[in-house]
UniProtKB/TrEMBL annotation:
<dbReference type="Pfam" id="PF01144">
    <property type="entry name" value="CoA_trans"/>
</dbReference>
<dbReference type="InterPro" id="IPR004165">
    <property type="entry name" value="CoA_trans_fam_I"/>
</dbReference>
<dbReference type="InterPro" id="IPR012792">
    <property type="entry name" value="3-oxoacid_CoA-transf_A"/>
</dbReference>
<dbReference type="GO" id="GO:0008410">
    <property type="term" value="F:CoA-transferase activity"/>
</dbReference>
<keyword id="KW-0808">Transferase</keyword>
<dbReference type="InterPro" id="IPR037171">
    <property type="entry name" value="NagB/RpiA_transferase-like"/>
</dbReference>
<protein>
    <submittedName>
        <fullName>CoA transferase subunit A</fullName>
    </submittedName>
</protein>
<dbReference type="InterPro" id="IPR004163">
    <property type="entry name" value="CoA_transf_BS"/>
</dbReference>
<comment type="similarity">
    <text>Belongs to the 3-oxoacid CoA-transferase subunit A family.</text>
</comment>
Length: 237
């Protein structure tokens, strides 16, 4: 069996300048912080980052460091962020005003479905969200034109799949093959992103031997996971 276990530094070693990465979690909850820290240490630049939000800046809720994607923004590593909720991190607005950061807002449900479409090999998804608004005429986050389709008398926007070079995901428990589960709020985007990238890195609180845990413990199959990092800190809200 291929050994998928690596250190955080080894796991992110393939991420290069200009790549597109997905990051699981919601405002830091469910984000693989050990992978983010290793990526900041590596110092790559000009990333396109896909996530629910921009993480949290230092000082939020008394935090001594930024959380999640906020660490990448703080380090000036991001050129383009594709997200749904960015109001909690003023670095995004500052970057947009300064012209150093591009931000593409995608409705949260649409963002999840675009990622899921890439994960499951779908050609796209149809949604009524945005019909009758300027979204019909706008290009999407990858500069692809939108299409409006009418089905049984109702109009829908065709949203294309959204895929990345790397997906950084977080688990509460996994086995050494990569079968994993996320507890409580840490589920956010981790399940849907695993499989929607060319390379999937999973940081887990706990790693067990194959067969040690009941198979029903796990939600996502390890076949979509390329690399496993053990020792992710306990999640916080």
């Amino acid at each position: 069996m291929i050994n998928k276990i690596k250190t955080a530094d080894e796991a992110v070693s393939g991420i290069k300048d200009g790549m597109t990465i997905m990051v699981g979690g919601f405002l830091g909850t469910g984000t693989p912080e050990c992978l983010i820290d290793a990526l900041v240490k590596k110092g790559v630049k000009h990333l396109t980052v896909i996530g629910n939000d921009g993480g949290l800046p230092v000082g939020t809720y008394g935090a001594k460091t930024a959380r999640g994607i906020g660490k990448l923004l703080e380090a000036g590593m991001v050129d383009h962020i594709i997200a749904s909720h960015v109001g909690m991190n003023p670095l995004i607005g500052d970057g947009m005003v300064a012209g150093t950061l591009k931000c593409t807002l995608v409705p949260q449900g649409t963002l999840a479905e675009k990622i899921r479409a890439a994960n499951y090999g779908l050609g796209g998804v149809l949604t009524p969200t945005g019909v009758g608004t300027p979204m019909e005429e706008e290009l999407d986050e990858l500069d692809r034109p939108k299409k409006v389709l009418e089905i049984e008398g109702r109009k829908y926007l065709l949203e294309m799949p959204l895929r990345a070079d790397y997906a950084l995901c977080r688990a509460s428990i996994c086995d050494k093959f990569g079968n994993f589960r996320c507890d409580k709020a840490t589920k956010n985007f981790n399940y849907v992103m695993a499989g929607a990238a060319d390379h999937v890195i999973l940081a887990s609180e706990k790693v067990v031997e194959i067969g040690e845990a009941d198979p029903d413990t796990f939600v996502v199959a390890g076949v979509v996971v390329d690399t496993i990092v053990e020792g992710e800190p306990k999640w916080q809200i």
